[in-house]
């Protein structure tokens, strides 16, 4: 069963190269903050702009630094089934604990194509697999029927990162899924609502910056302290929203840059944050830091 807080890690760059030391520092901050796991080479990690060699290098760095201190769920999805299988096998050989598989984008497969895509990957690996449904980016939706069909046929498909923004969807998945299959929120701002209807955690962008606070939200809810979780959610909510005023991961990298943890550099076709939005984000973070004391 997969539960808790998993940080969708940024990939730090410096002069268009992976900043290895910054990446290691970021992972240490996550572990110190008490997250359950880290997710390298996902959307937040700018996976579309990484070469195959870079993707595998980032996963190696994550596995090496994490050791047995937190789980590593590597982003290995692709809109090519062959490539997704190759990336997933590589992650397994490197030593990742699991793989995050985004829905095939651009191709726009039907539900049978989606089923066969994920089935082929599941049959090619013994890794724990997490489906990733984000129709806003992929232009395709993994329907609950397809998710349940996959979960029932393949025991190594153990969870879904749900980023369709629908509480009803989570309710349906939790009600119908086989025992041990879990739902993780794919949107920080919906973590608490999703937890309230049965989700088990979050794959978070905000935890790059505030790992302890996001992990605490999930933890206190799991302990039955709903009012305390709501208080944390309300405090973090403005940040959750402002981290997406420009395409992810531009705002989170900008904020991490202000802290001196990484360079805010992103790869094209992404570009740096506008001055207006940067000012807004800085005000939000400053207010949150004051509130946290």
What does this structure look like?
The model has no long low-confidence stretch (mean pLDDT 97). This protein has one domain (4-223): Aldolase class I (TIM Barrel), CATH 3.20.20.70. With 293 residues, the protein is of the alpha/beta class. An eight-stranded parallel barrel has the order 1-4-5-6-7-8-9-10, surrounded by six helices. It has a two-stranded antiparallel ribbon with strand order 2-3. 49% of the residues lie in helices and 14% in strands. The chain has helices at residues 20-33, 52-66, 81-94, 111-124, 135-138, 144-153, 167-176, 191-196, 211-222, 226-242, 250-258, 275-292; strands spanning 4-8, 13-14, 17-18, 37-39, 71-75, 98-102, 128-133, 157-162, 182-185, 201-204.
Number of domains: 1
Structural class: alpha/beta
- State the helicity in percent bands: 40-55%
Level-2 CATH architecture: Alpha-Beta Barrel
Beta strand count = 10
Order of helices and strands: EEEHEHEHEHEHHEHEHEHHHH
List segments where confidence is low: pLDDT < 50 over at least 5 consecutive residues: none
How much is the radius of gyration in Å? 18 Å
Main β-sheet: number of strands, strand sense, barrel status? 8 strands, parallel, barrel
Q: What distance separates the N and C termini?
A: 35 Å
Percent of residues in beta strands?
A: 5-15%
Number of helices: 12
CATH topology label: TIM Barrel
């Amino acid at each position: 069963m997969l539960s808790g807080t998993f940080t969708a890690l940024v990939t730090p760059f410096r002069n268009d190269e992976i900043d290895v030391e910054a990446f290691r520092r970021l992972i240490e901050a996550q572990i110190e903050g008490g997250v359950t796991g880290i997710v390298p080479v996902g959307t937040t990690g700018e996976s579309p702009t990484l070469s195959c060699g870079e993707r595998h290098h980032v996963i190696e760095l994550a596995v090496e630094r994490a050791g047995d201190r937190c789980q590593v769920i590597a982003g290995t999805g692709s809109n090519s089934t062959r490539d997704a299988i190759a990336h997933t096998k590589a992650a397994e050989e490197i030593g990742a604990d699991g793989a995050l598989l985004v829905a095939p984008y651009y191709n726009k497969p039907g539900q049978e194509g989606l089923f066969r895509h994920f089935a082929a990957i599941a049959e090619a690996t013994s890794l724990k697999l997490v489906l990733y449904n984000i129709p806003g980016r992929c232009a395709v939706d993994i329907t609950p029927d397809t998710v349940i069909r996959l979960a029932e046929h393949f025991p190594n498909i153990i969870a879904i990162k749900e980023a369709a923004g629908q509480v009803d969807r989570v309710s349906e998945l939790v009600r119908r899924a086989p025992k041990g299959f879990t739902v993780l929120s794919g949107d920080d701002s919906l973590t608490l609502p999703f937890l309230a209807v049965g989700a088990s955690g979050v794959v978070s962008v905000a935890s790059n910056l505030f790992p302890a606070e996001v992990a605490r939200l999930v933890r206190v809810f799991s302990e039955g302290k709903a009012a305390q979780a709501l208080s944390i959610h309300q405090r973090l909510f403005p940040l959750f929203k402002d981290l997406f005023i420009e395409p992810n991961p531009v705002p989170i990298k900008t904020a991490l840059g202000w802290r001196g943890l990484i360079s805010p550099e992103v790869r094209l076709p992404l570009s740096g944050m506008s001055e207006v939005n940067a000012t807004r984000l800085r005000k939000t973070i400053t207010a949150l830091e004051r509130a946290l004391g």
